[in-house]
Amino acid sequence: MSAASSEPRKAGVSSPTDIKEFVSSAGSSLLVVDVRHPDASVEPGDAKSLAVAGFPDKDSNFRPNAINLPWSRESNSMEVPEVDKDTPIITHCGGGGRGQKAKDYLESVGFTKVLNGGGPKETECWAEYGDK
Hints:
Structural class: alpha/beta
């Protein structure tokens, strides 16, 4: 269970232990895919998680291993990261719902090492990769 909530993690969100092991074995090749939407009118729930954890910013080296590729509820898809299919990837949104959809989608197009990390609402999970 999340330390921030008495509710169990959403289906598919990896455990903090699994995430820690995944991050450790991935090393510098880890890619974190933030699927939250920058426009709160499209995804109103993202405003709350963005207040806790902002988007990756390469210019300031904030979350240097992360990129933002928003999940589209309309198309049930997302832009595919331009990396090798065996790159270790953690997907996340605010709490794990769209992170799971993104994980499933990336696996459906051939990515082989993908975990759903939940997101900032899952504080124990987030602690393992949120600064990556």
